[in-house]
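--- STAGE predict ---
source: upstream dedup step, 1 unique chain passed
mode: sequence only
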Amino acid sequence: MIGLTAVRQALDFGELMRDHRAMVFSVAWHFLHDRDLAEETAQDVFLSLHKNLAGIETPAHAAFWLRKVAVQRSIDAARKRSRRPQVALDDIAEPSVRPAPGDPMLGGMLRRLIATLPETPRMAMILRYQEDLDPAEIALTMGIPLGTVKSHIQRSLALLRGKLERRGVGER
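--- STAGE serialize ---
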């Protein structure tokens, strides 16, 4: 019987990993902009999932839990990285996905501008516009009040608009 339980957990873990690895990596990569560190962070998240698998009740609970842990571990990794030398963003290869249609120069500029935001507002922006979560989901995921999420997003958008206008990009 013990062997059967272990096999069932391994299958459940494998399925959860397949279903959510893109989301976990996406959160980490968009926050960290470092492929190796994002992969390491994602591995750490799934290691935690394996250790805490018994507490996961439903697939929806697993998705929420994984996103929340990915957010926390990404912020932790960024803090650790700030204490050691960094590689320039231009030296890091983009993930192997098809480029989205649009202006690649503007996309690169936006990524660099978002990377200048403080940790919490940056993660709120990534969860809102990259992961397409609504503010209530972001508040739950990050463990902060809904009003704070809305404030971070509103202030970050205003700040980014101002920086883009100073660079001569945007509405005229």
